[in-house]
Design brief:
binds phosphoenolpyruvate, alpha/beta, TIM Barrel, 15% strand, eight-stranded parallel beta barrel, 12 helices
């Protein structure tokens, strides 16, 4: 059975000091049950975050990105070897901000994903359409094309360590959330596509997270959808009370499944 996951993407927010305080507060407040919780801090406190989580069952750290090469003259980048050596299991790849501001193409994202998986990491792979595409009504085709050009090129063996995050760009950081039905429809389509490409077992076992203005007031309704297996949370993950409330909504849903 697939896991329920709540992942917090801090983006370029928090400092080592405020990041440490945030983790400690969540560790005190949150009751996980079988839910997995992931923190993705900026690189500078990734190692600190990973260490703070040691001994706390169900909590993990994630890198927000990594380079596709193993090393070399790539100023400002980090490699999978660095992530591996500090023991961090998860890497977010393909966030829409990486695609938009850093021009990461599907080909680059596939190379990054392969490199992470080859090195024993787990990948949270993001996909999602812009407002223009949603309004045109071609969002299903668009997301399927994103997946076909990237993670659907993996072998089933590689795919075992992939978590998918559906994040409609129009809902990220805008306060505008996809309705539970809109989320479910896309998650259902994604799972059906995984089944076609990778087989029934992987379709059943692959967590598909929703991302886009998840907050305590809407988390439960979204998480209750049968093909939604948790959330990738930006803004609300920066507040310990809000993030803990989202984890509580995930726990409640997970217990009812
Ligand atoms: C994100 O950036 O992954 C995200 C979902 O952000 P927010 O929750 O702030 O919309």
């Amino acid at each position: 059975m697939r896991k329920f996951i709540v992942a917090g993407n801090w983006k370029m927010n928090t400092t080592p000091k405020t990041g440490k305080e945030l983790v400690k507060k969540v560790l005190k407040k949150a009751k996980l049950g079988n839910v997995k919780v992931i923190f993705a801090p900026p690189y500078i406190h990734l190692m600190q975050t990973h260490k703070l989580l040691k001994g706390h069952k169900g909590f993990f750290a994630a890198a927000q990105n990594m380079h596709q090469e193993e090393g070399g003259a790539y100023t400002g980048e980090i490699s999978v070897g660095m992530i591996k050596e500090i023991g961090v299991k998860y890497v977010i790849i393909g966030h829409s901000e990486r695609r938009q501001y850093f021009k990461e193409s599907n080909a680059i994202l596939l190379a990054k994903t392969k490199k992470a998986l080859e090195n024993g990491r787990k990948v949270i792979f993001c996909c999602g359409e812009s407002l223009g595409i949603r309004e045109k009504g071609t969002h299903f085709q668009y997301v399927m094309r994103q997946l076909s050009a990237t993670i659907f090129k993996l072998t089933p063996e590689e795919f075992r360590n992939v978590v998918i995050a559906y994040e409609p760009i129009w809902a990220i950081g805008t306060g505008r959330t996809a309705s539970p039905e809109q989320a479910q429809d896309m998650h259902f389509a994604i799972r059906a596509a995984v089944k076609k490409k990778m087989g029934e077992k992987l379709a059943e076992n692959t967590p598909v997270l929703y991302g886009g203005s998840v907050k305590p007031s809407n988390a439960l309704e979204i998480f209750k959808q049968p093909d939604v297996d948790g959330g990738l949370v930006g803004g609300a993950s920066l507040n310990a009370d809000d993030f803990s409330a989202i984890i509580a909504a995930a726990r409640k849903t997970e217990m009812g499944r």
